[in-house]
Fold these 2 entries.
Entry 1:
Amino acid sequence: MTLPSLKDSIQQHGLDAKKALGQHFLLDPGLCARIAALGGDLTGRSVVEIGPGPGGLTRALINTPADRIDAVEIDERAWPLLDELAGYANGRLHIVRQDALTLDAASLGPAPRQIVANLPYNVATPLLIGWLRQAASWERMALMFQFEVAERICAAPGTSAYGRLAVLAQWCAQCSIALKIPPGAFSPPPKVHSAVAVIIPHAEQPEPSLFKAMERVTAAAFGQRRKMLRSSLKSIGGEKLLSQAEIEPTRRAETLSIAEFARLATLHHADR
Ligand code: SAM
């Protein structure tokens, strides 16, 4: 038995792209293989793919030495096609029929896992923040985002893209943009450029309550990013916190390094 081509498979199953589900499909096997390779050495690993859709990237993941691939798809129209694909994967491809936003980790292979995904852009940021909250469960992520979002994840202090997402992501992980992809690579093409970010969680991770403290600090600091920190951090004890952290109260959020945010989060955490 040979696997039908991706295009034939999409046609046979009548899977036209739905805008509401952020569906922009990758049909080029070469590009899918490059994205799968950004997942690093998958030998014996458990990989999660969010939103396999018609399975272009899933096919590339099946061709890696990964032990297990959990493909999490919300669109029931894609399930029969994915079930068919699973028939060619020697039991290594598991179709998880769930919303990735409320994904139950018990349905996945053993941690630490990798994530490789061409994410649905409408839920990409909440998905990433959810994974960062549990960063110890993940060994590496290779994730396609809208280009501006990838820039915000990897931004350096002092730049306009630097904000809450950069601090949360870079506090927990090493982040870099590995591949920029033009709209024409997708069917249908989105209006924006895309990029794959590689996110490698640090060996040491903050405990959940400290992560929550960092979420509060960054929400306050960047919620009013043009204001001085003594004013934007008022609701969480601004002046005292800044003096304990030895940070000038007249500075603005975008000038603070990740290490300075880490000091603020640790002190705010200890204060509660
Ligand atoms: N991986 C495919 C590819 O590269 O061609 C499709 C990528 S498409 C950008 C995003 C996929 O995520 C779609 O298949 C869509 O149905 C799925 N999706 C959207 N929201 C989802 C959610 N909340 N949970 C799981 N899958 C979702």
Note: The beta strands are 25-26, 46-50, 68-72, 93-96, 113-118, 138-146, 173-181, 186-187, 194-201.
Entry 2:
Amino acid sequence: MNDLRKQIEQLVLQTLQELRPGMQEIAPLMQVSQLQTSSFTYGKRVPFVAANWKMNQLSASAKSFIIELQKLDRKNVQTVICAPHILLSQMAAERQYADLLLGAQNFYPETAGAFTGEHSLQMLADAGVNTVIIGHSERRNLFGEQDELLAKKLSTAIANNFLPIFCVGENLAERKNGSTFRVLYNQLTTGLSQIRPPFPDPDKIVFAYEPIWAIGTGVTATADQAEEAVAFVRERLVEKFSYAYAEKVRVLYGGSVNEKNTTSLAAKPSIDGFLVGNASLGVSTFASIIDQTAACKRMV
Ligand code: PGA
């Protein structure tokens, strides 16, 4: 554990030293909390692995997936399948274990009304769903969802006792011009702006660092890049909530996670699990990602 702490301290110091030009204004914030980061206790959070099926699978493949997945030992990894809306009721009927969560990929933050094509959280709860992805880059970029709407979605999901997976991440140009941390900072600041006490239990809110350049591209962030960004996200949670709270919140990495890169990413102490797209479509690959995550986190 001491070695691990030293590594984290080193990582934070290195991050501070490498602050890019665009980062200067928020550097003081990092310095205020850097000592706290170095004493985060790792390995106490239950790993979390989520499948994001996006617009894939039909009823037959969804059924066999959930049946097969339930035959496997998920080894204390909290597992979520975020399926297309039309498959969710059917999957809820196939689900035998309450610890296997079902998630939606989208919802509209109103109770009911004239919102053609949308689904409310009440409808999702009625279908047996208790988790929802918010802020995915495909929703932000392809469907024009802005930070303010995402903030409303996040607070509405919490108010309705859903577990939100709130995603943040920079695009390639932002990574290249050194504004990664600024983008994450802004997305988190606005995204969290409508959450007020009483805060949800820390195990009922999950964050995901998803660099857009790594999503669906086959290009994964290096384990160090992912660790650095995930640690940065947790630092912001210290500011919003508290040190003790942020220490308990799971922060995931997402972007071209597969069987081959899971272990190196999961070995990083800040990364609590994954949001998996392509590699979650086949049950054996997804199960391998769960197994590897469990094995790594047992050792942290
Ligand atoms: P990918 O998708 O694993 O296919 O890159 C990840 C995501 O979009 O959450």
Note: Residues 52, 210, 215-216, 254-257, 275-279 surround 2-phosphoglycolic acid (CB under 6 Å).
